[in-house]
Description:
Immunoglobulin-like, 2 domains
Amino acid sequence: xxxxxxxxxxxxxxxxxxxxxxxxxxxxxxxxxxxxxxxxxxxxxxxxxxxxxxxxxxxxxxxxxxxxxxxxxxxxxxxxxxxxxxxxxxxxxxxxxxxxxxxxxxxxxxxxxxxxxxxxxxxxxxxxxxxxxxxxxxxxxxxxxxxxxxxxxxxxxxxxxxxxxxxxxxxxxxxxxxxxxxxxxxxxxxxxxxxxxxxxxxxxxxxxxxxxxxxxxxxxxxxxxxxxxxxxxxxxxxxxxxxxxxxxx
Length: 249
């Protein structure tokens, strides 16, 4: 209809966009070429590029700020006199997960203690998401941890998903030394996300230089306190003895 040599040139036309998802559909946009107007059924954030439509016949649907809720099948129908053309397009919005570790601050651990940590991936679409755990020691070396489980996924009202991984750390089976940086990794089609928390292990057999210096400092403080108390009692005893001698004289 935009080609002057076409017998349909200047003829009336209409464009209609419909949305379908899991058997349910609705009208997104309807345009009447005769009146050059959009119908009142226009959905918020959905429009056409009218200049491209009139100059090039481009009837593409424009969605502003597309979200996961917009994922689904879009059907474009163009009406011309005695003709109808239709095409369906599938749209999938990928949203990477947001990660959070619970507890956000891990308690001090001792050798032989078991620690439970959770990592929650939320607000992602579509499925699936793949979890992994790793810990980076003070020596800079990373170790993969496999003692974790994954819960079933949950879906929110906006069609995004959430899922949780639970990790169990047995400090007696892992050579963690002083601990390190514990990291949860979630691999998703929309992008890989990572979040970390610090794990501190105390009371292991080989103390560091810092620990040794701290213990020496504590020992010196205790020694000084004992000497002070001893001197105080000695001084008090001497004073009492002097008083007693004066009374007898």
